[in-house]
Amino acid sequence: MAKRILNSLRGTIHGVRFSLMHSACCRLERAGMNPKEPF
After folding, report:
1. Which DSSP string do the residues of 1-39 spell out, in sequence order?
2. In this structure, what is the dihedral angle of CA atoms 26, 30, 36, 39, given to the nearest 10 degrees?
3. Which of 15, 25, 27, 37 is most buried (most C-beta within 10 Å)?
4. Residue 27: pLDDT above 90?
């Protein structure tokens, strides 16, 4: 049971990290296309 909780926690952390990376990439892309747009 503890292992399952650990695995779900790890999955959540990975998901959060991935979404953060994705949003950062989107912001960089947008900034590259439109330099005047602030982060």
Report:
1. -HHHHHHHHHHHHHHHHHHHHHHHHHHHHHHHH-TTS--
2. 0
3. 27
4. no
